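quick one, 349 residues, struct below
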Amino acid sequence: MTRLRKFGVASAVVGAASAGLAGVAFAKRYVIGRIRLRPDPEASEPFGELRGREAPITTSDGVHLHVEIDGPEDAPLTVVFCHGYTLNLDSWHYQRRDLRDTYRLVLWDQRCHGRSKRTPTGDSSIDRLGDDLAEVLDAHVPGPCVLVGHSMGGMTIMALADRHPHLFRDRVRGVVLLSTSAGKLAELTLGLPAIVSKLLHKVGPAAVAALGRGGALVDRGRQAGHDISFLAVRLFGFGDSSNVSPTVVDFVESMIRTTPTEVIAEFYPALMSHDKLDALDVLDGVPTAVIVGEKDWLTPPDHSRAIAAAVPHAQLTEIPDTSHLAQLERPGVVNDAIRDLLKRAAGEE
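---
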């Protein structure tokens, strides 16, 4: 083949590839554009703008935690919200909005997330999160309280039960565990064929660790890949993705995108090794609500059923057509379940 012909073939290949990439980019913009043009009743909702009284603390190992207190100081119960992996306290937007007039609320960013600082000791374990929660309670919850935890936040509450069981019943009068797990996350199939899932779990930890080592570079790529992240969050974070508000999806995507890749990598092993099923005995006699979306693929309903089975008298709510972000996808259902639990914790039922 002559050099001219080789050049022509190479040019054709590059041209075809460029055309293909351009086509994909156009299709992506077209799809996202159509999604954003739909009527959006949440477009004017002030996500990320609700603020309380700042009351930061510094933990015993030197981490500055961002804490906010909202609602009336003389409320008989304090509700403490513990957010999930890669999110921050703003993920409780609807719960704060609807409960702040009646209850005293304490919301905090878990270490390395949101406005809280990175850990200088490298301790990104679930047990350490449980200790952090104990210190938040000591600093800002002088009376009875109810704990509400989503995903990793639910695991934080389980770690508190394991390491500080004396706090339950007297101080902690109720618990809400939302879209979470007591363990065995490393066995999830994620809806994939068994052989693919097994391979994913085998290579996953090394792949996540490698991403963490190149965190700064990966973060720049994540900023540039906003549209792809939007579609991924919409597809996997919500059960009824065709009807979810694009404003809500943008809100969640921005929280995830602003969580550094290094933080995601540091906490991943702790989530996969989490096992606190035995600690659930501490919740015996404590009003407990367990809530999960029926389409949750990150912490599937079987995990919530196992928690409910281990906690006597726990009330299990499975929400149809809902995935992992139930507090944002079905806030009315979640808020009703929280209110019912608060009444039980206050002895009103």
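Residues 1-31, 192-197 have pLDDT under 50 and may be disordered.
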